[in-house]
UniProtKB/TrEMBL annotation:
It is an enzyme of class 1 (oxidoreductase). GO terms for molecular function: metal ion binding; monooxygenase activity. Residues 20-276 form the Auxiliary Activity family 9 catalytic domain. It is found in: Secreted. This is lytic cellulose monooxygenase (C4-dehydrogenating). Keywords: Carbohydrate metabolism, Cellulose degradation, Copper, Disulfide bond, Metal-binding, Monooxygenase, Oxidoreductase, Polysaccharide degradation, Secreted, Signal. Its main location: secreted. Residues 1-19 form the signal peptide. Belongs to the polysaccharide monooxygenase AA9 family. It holds the Pfam family AA9. InterPro entries: AA9, AA9_LPMO.
């Protein structure tokens, strides 16, 4: 059954109800949990101070922009306010997780959007208006990344705001469409109407303890255009509250990122937080470059040529043994 807590929590009416999306469901080793369960909820509607002057009101599935509140960028809009009411999912290091998203408002959730979906998927839209019914298509092209942030000693995950380091454990990026060097295809939103699946393992060397597990699709904004209202890079973060059982003790490796600080590459002074540097809209309109978060038109549209200097967002990735950079595919040679 759909969680009544979630259905009641979001009562806002969004005119274009299916234009955006939220990751809301997890499966552990192939078994789907109830939609919404173990995820920090969001507040809807919610006004972000940084965009209040533009009249921005974030509804349930609305994107989060880089200039929004740190808490909104970490785990979704105003999500820390919902931490205490969120259950904690117990998993084992090495378990395989899959994440599913929806574009439907919680008040409109029906069992047929979650149960009996094709290919054992965790969400679908049998009565939808999207390209390839019954699939639940992603609304936007971009990479999907997932991170773990370990809860500091002595703290409960329900009391942790995500201000520590985040270590990337998953990247779903792009490929070249039929080896065409001038046409990429993101594997999540791929223009087939049949979305890529978000499946990865919790590294088997993950130390025992409590974590926030963040998953996000980042639709990078077009770097050469005017950054007009509503046109910023869009993030779609959600966090699971998890307790990892493991034979390993200790901490995650160093070298993770801070959110939002290290979502920026060339923030002024490097050590100044992204939030500070983006605290006014003027700053947002200045030429700040973010790793994988401002791109050329081919990547913005998700079916053109890639940027030569593109770096996947989210920092180094950990496979349980080493930290490494996930490199985009090599561009095929022209034939
Ligand atoms: Cu959207």
């Amino acid at each position: 059954m759909v969680s009544t807590l979630w259905a009641l929590a979001a009562t806002a009416i969004l005119p274009v109800a299916q234009s955006h999306f939220t990751f809301v469901r997890v499966s552990v080793n192939g078994v789907w949990e109830e939609p919404g369960r173990y995820f920090r909820n969001k507040t809807s509607p919610f006004v972000e101070p940084a965009t209040e002057s533009e009249g921005y009101i974030g509804y349930y599935h609305s994107p989060t922009f880089p200039q929004h509140l740190p808490n909104s960028l970490r785990c979704g809009r105003d999500s820390f306010a919902h931490a205490a009411e969120t259950e904690v999912l117990t998993v084992k290091a090495g378990d395989t997780l899959e994440f599913a998203h929806t574009r439907i408002e919680p008040k409109d959730w029906k069992d047929y959007q979650w149960y009996g979906c094709p290919e054992g998927r965790g969400s679908c839209d049998p009565n939808g208006t999207q390209w390839e019914v019954p699939y639940m298509e992603f609304a936007h092209p971009g990479p999907v990344v997932a991170h773990l942030s370990q809860v500091p000693d002595g703290l409960d995950v329900r009391d942790y705001d995500g201000s520590g380091e985040w270590v990337k454990i998953y990247t779903l990026g792009y490929e070249f469409y039929h080896d065409d060097p001038d046409r990429i295809i993101f594997l999540a939103h791929n223009y087939t109407g049949r979305p890529g699946r978000i499946i990865f393992d919790i590294p088997s060397q993950t130390p025992a303890g409590e974590y926030l597990l963040r998953v996000d699709l980042i639709w990078a904004y077009y770097k050469d255009s005017q950054r007009v209202s509503g046109g910023y890079t869009q993030l779609y973060p959600s966090c699971l509250q998890v307790r990892v059982e493991s034979a390993v003790e200790g901490s995650l490796p160093a070298g993770g990122i801070k959110i939002p600080e290290n979502l920026c590459r060339d923030c002024p002074g490097k050590l100044i937080s992204c939030l500070q540097s983006l605290s006014s809209l003027e700053a947002v309109r200045s030429p700040i470059t973010m790793v994988g978060m401002l791109v050329g038109s081919g990547m913005y549209g998700g079916q053109g040529e890639p940027d030569d200097d593109y770096v996947y967002p989210g920092g180094l990735q950990w496979d349980g043994e080493k930290m490494f950079e996930v490199r985009p595919p090599v561009r095929p040679s022209r034939r």
